[in-house]
Amino acid sequence: MAHVNLLPWREEQRQKDKKQYLGSLIFIALIVFLAFWLLGEFIEKQIRNQEFRNNYLNQEISILDAQIARIRDIKTTKSAISQRMALIEQLQVSRNVSPIMFDELARIVPNGVSFEKMSRNGNRIELVGISESNNRLSSFMRNLQASEVFTNGELSSIKADAASLNAVSNFKLTFSLSAKVAPVTIDEQNEGTN
């Protein structure tokens, strides 16, 4: 009987296995905790890096927005200056139009035709006047058509004045200045394109 072991070796083995199991479990739990902590730190670092990039991009975008606003202001100013320059050029070109127009009217109007009212809108002229006879008015219309200063003569109305002792006629006439004398204005160009 010398070989019979009476000590509770199975209980000791269970205790030993239990301690080893708990040690392994704690070790694995620590490794898992450490892995999750490292993963969390990595994700946190990525988030911080992305926030830094976003802030940098937002700063650059605000700088570009300011530059775009400045460019818009410059374009607006440039457009206004271009319009002023075009107006000045137009005024330079058309400054001699009135003297040329009145000189030509004085040359082509026959005796017996007089004007009561004259209005000009751009290159379009409207005359309201009196003619002693239809022949004189016809002569004026022929002279108007032959003129290099005027174009598109159109007699809108002609009425005999019954109240007058003389046989006079009231007339309304519209015509245009030729492009040689008065170039097309900016407003007329815009109306033509619309």
Question: How would you sum up this structure, described in words?
Answer:
- This protein is of the alpha+beta class.
- It has a single domain (47-183), classed as General secretion pathway protein M, EpsM (Gyrase A, domain 2, 2-Layer Sandwich), CATH 3.30.1360.100.
- Helix content is 61%, strand content 19%.
- It is built from four helices and four strands; from the N terminus they run H-H-E-E-H-E-E-H.
- The protein has helices spanning 9-94, 97-108, 134-146, 186-193; strands at 113-121, 124-131, 150-160, 169-177.
- It has a four-stranded antiparallel sheet with strand order 1-2-4-3, with helices on one face.
- A hairpin with an 8-residue loop joins strand 3 and strand 4 (169-177).
- The chain starts with 8 loop residues before the first helix and ends with a helix.
- The model has no long low-confidence stretch (mean pLDDT 87).
